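Can't paste images in this forum, so I'm doing it all in text. The chain is below; anyone willing to post the predicted structure tokens underneath?
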Amino acid sequence: MASAFAKHEVEYMFIGKSGAILLGYPSSTQDVDLFPKKTEENGKRIILALREIGFEITVENENKIIKGNDFVQIKTGPFDLDLVFAPDGIESFEKARERMIVVDNFPIANISDIIASKKASGREKDVLDLPLLEDFQVEFEKQRRGDL
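Text version of the structure:
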């Protein structure tokens, strides 16, 4: 996916538990959560990239992606994918991009943004993850500073 998105110049970052996992969080998830930049052109590039890697994009989802609907769930591909154009707790794509981390060519939201989004969502499953994610954040930041 990262290769197809790079080829089509999609502006995005991983968020949610999938983003945390890419940062080293020891867990699993049922889907991939992406925070794409909300522009019509970026939406068109997303559709091209997703089709290239085997997603079937319905006309309805194509329109939602191009418009940048807040949340677009796609279950017609090699894995379940959530496109979250307006994640709770993150003020803007541009601000999140300033804090973004790139690991092995994967653009990933900062762990602080991932946690802020989970807090703001208020979903029970996200609230249950918060203590573990916050503990992971402490260790992750120590590692990035070289304290370990």
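Strands lie at 12-15, 31-36, 71-74, 80-84, 101-103, 106-108. The longest helix spans residues 124-145.
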